[in-house]
């Protein structure tokens, strides 16, 4: 089998594969949308990591002042200017308070150095208050640090892998204050789609109304669906959400081509199509032709007039010509054919961008 015959075989298999793909699979509402007001809150605080093996902050003034203040609270007075806290490092502690977190729940936290410490490995975080954007303390963090890097040095030579000035403490914070919520008493729920789309929003509202047998959901915009809590669920908004988030719908996908220039990666959505166009790229000459045929029913029959699209791709190389005539070729098949012929991903990215500029690519291009 020569090169042209092999490519034709591949293209024929692709045509069968793409022709066998059915409509988009159903997806649960809980995977497509979130509940307005149900979200985590970011926490942060300033603290000290102690017990470092001489790898802490050097003559960092705010670290010295922090150590002096800490000792003062314990009844020990010391001049900050006389401190050289090599075993202490000033850090910022961050975490995330989940929605509906209860007092006593534990959170994972991240610890990052803000001074000139060389490493936080082996250190212990002292009790650190974590506040939200409103200035209130919602959690307190403390514990032994797990560094995300490894390093060693001897006789002036050093080696490092990962980051030594940051670390993590699993279950290192305890929730001290709960966020007040009247969620159970809500009379209206707002669903927010993760990706704005009028068609998906309309399908979501329709599916909810059909499942409940009442007009309780309406579309506000491409991202928002307002849902009225039925009287039967009064005071039980959580149960109502559980009943609708399991409803399946078929989201409408946007035709999109994602191109990562740095990595040379091209990802093409199934909905992407191309119009009639001819391309010349390097040693390749590519021509795409689309023809619309009309199928007319017999007189006095009950049939309807149908329009069929037939697409033809012709690729010419230096050593010959390849002509493939599948019914309804997609740009995914074109990409596979180019890949089989040895076209690099970066060249594919250039071709697709040129298609978009020529108005022949019926899709959105996302450049990363």
Top keywords for this entry?
3 domains, alpha+beta, disordered N terminus, single chain, 6-stranded antiparallel β-barrel
TL;DR?
With 368 residues, the protein is an alpha+beta fold.
Descriptive report:
There is one protein chain. The chain is an alpha+beta fold and 368 residues long. The chain has 7 helices and 22 strands. It has 3 domains: 3-23 and 254-367, no CATH class; 41-175, no CATH class; 182-249. It has a 6-stranded antiparallel β-barrel. Strands 2-10-12-11 form a 4-stranded antiparallel sheet. Helix 1 (3-19) runs antiparallel to helix 6 (331-340). The longest helix has 17 residues, at 3-19. The protein starts with a helix and ends with a strand.
List the helices and strands and how they pair.
Elements: H1 3-19, E1 27-28, H2 29-32, E2 33-35, E3 41-50, H3 61-73, E4 89-97, E5 106-113, E6 124-131, E7 137-144, E8 146-154, E9 157-175, E10 188-193, H4 198-212, E11 217-219, E12 224-228, H5 237-244, E13 248-249, E14 256-260, E15 265-268, E16 273-274, E17 277-281, E18 284-295, E19 306-317, E20 320-324, H6 331-340, H7 345-357, E21 361-362, E22 364-367
């Amino acid at each position: 089998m020569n090169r042209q015959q092999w490519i034709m075989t591949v293209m024929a298999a692709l045509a069968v594969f793409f022709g066998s793909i059915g409509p988009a699979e159903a997806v649960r509402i809980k995977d497509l949308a979130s509940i307005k007001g149900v979200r985590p809150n970011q926490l942060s605080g300033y603290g000290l990591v102690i017990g470092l093996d001489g790898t802490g902050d050097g003559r960092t003034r705010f670290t010295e002042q922090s150590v002096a203040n800490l000792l003062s609270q314990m009844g020990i007075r010391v001049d900050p200017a006389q401190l050289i806290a090599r075993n202490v490092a000033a850090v910022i502690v961050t975490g995330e308070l989940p929605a509906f977190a209860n007092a006593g729940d534990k959170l994972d936290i991240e610890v990052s150095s803000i001074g000139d410490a060389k490493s936080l490995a082996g250190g212990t975080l002292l009790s650190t208050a974590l506040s939200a954007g409103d200035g209130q303390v919602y959690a307190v963090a403390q514990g032994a640090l797990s560094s995300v890097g490894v390093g060693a040095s001897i006789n002036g030579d050093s080696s490092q892998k990962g980051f030594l000035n940051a670390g993590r403490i699993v279950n290192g914070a305890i929730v001290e204050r709960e966020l007040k919520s009247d969620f159970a008493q809500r009379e209206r729920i707002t669903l927010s789609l993760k990706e704005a789309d009028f068609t998906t929003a309309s399908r979501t509202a329709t599916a909810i109304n059909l499942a409940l047998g009442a007009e309780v959901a309406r579309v506000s915009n491409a991202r928002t669906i307002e849902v009225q809590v039925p009287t039967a669920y009064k005071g039980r908004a959580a149960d109502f959400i559980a009943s609708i988030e399991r409803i399946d719908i078929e989201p409408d996908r946007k035709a999109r081509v994602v191109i990562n220039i740095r990595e040379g990666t091209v990802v093409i959505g199934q909905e992407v199509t191309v119009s009639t166009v001819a391309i010349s790229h390097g040693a390749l000459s590519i021509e795409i032709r689309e023809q619309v045929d009309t199928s007319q029913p017999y007189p006095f029959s009950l049939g309807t007039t149908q329009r069929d699209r037939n697409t033809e791709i012709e690729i010419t190389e230096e050593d010959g010509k390849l002509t493939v005539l599948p019914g309804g070729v997609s740009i995914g098949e074109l990409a596979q054919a180019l890949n089989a012929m040895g076209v690099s991903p970066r060249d594919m990215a250039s071709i697709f961008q040129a298609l978009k500029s020529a108005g022949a690519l019926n899709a959105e291009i996302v450049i990363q």
